[in-house]
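Exam review. A common question shows you a sequence with its structure tokens and asks you to describe the fold in words. Practice with the pair below. Do the first one on your own.
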Amino acid sequence: MKTGSRKFLGLPTTRLGWWAGGLAVIFIVLFILISNSTLFFSGFLNKIFGFTAGVFGLTAMIQQGERSWFVWLAILCGLFVVLVMFGEILAPR
């Protein structure tokens, strides 16, 4: 297994990096479809996709040295989900 890419514009070189990026893409597509009421899907399950993408991305970055934009996207998705969850806890509807 490779130790990871050092290029930001390149694609991930580790398996964990690809998983993080794939989950981030799933999260983004489902988020857009749920927001437009095109798809009636569990928002909680979508948040799990986003959070897992962020955890996988952070793990790939710290342990395997992955630096791809795909992994950064996954980390941003995870951060977004964490901030939304804190917002729901601090100021519920």
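Now try the second one, then compare your answer with the model answer below.
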Amino acid sequence: MPSASFFRSLGLFIVPNFLEAAYRNDLCASMAAAPAEKAQVERSDGSTVIDETSRKVESTLIPKEIRTELKQKLLGLVPRLEAHFNLTLGGCETPDFLIYKPSDFFTLHADGGSNSGYCEGTRLRRVTTVIFLNSESPEAREGTYGDGRLRFHGLLEGPYWERCTFALKPEPGMLVAFPSRMLHEVTPVSHGNRLTIVTWFFAPESDATEAASPAN
């Protein structure tokens, strides 16, 4: 798999060790102890449904104070993300703590953008952020998982390269951010539980007002 520097050269924002080991371990323990529910997908009308043909993963219902603390850490990235992606951000959604179990996956999709097929809230997403909490391993070992690759599509221009996909090699604690309009997927997990945190940084409220206004 390509290195982190390869993805940086193509515009992705990557922070190794965004979360320290002790903090990650506490989060993993909290996720393991918390109740969970099947993650949903969003329709263009804003409603959400469970559709395990496109997305199969569990969202853990960890305590609010843990979500709030991590959200504050993520909001501290706003100036760096704005500079990196050359845009203005209004904040981020409350983080989602996900457990991908064996055979879980997320098919090819984009998280947001100006496409009219998205509902208003999703159209305002500008940057997607993923944090990896545990290690990938080709062999079944406690606390690790296999496969479940975060794979990007259309990173390079040109008829041939547009059909190529590139998988990011994860590291525990690594944060990766990319434009929410970018096509990506999570391949099926082969063994173990893949633990990640995701959130989305959105456009300022002024952009929401403009998006809701009729064209002149």
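Model answer, second protein: The longest strand covers residues 194-202. The chain has one domain: 4-203. Full marks require stating both points clearly.
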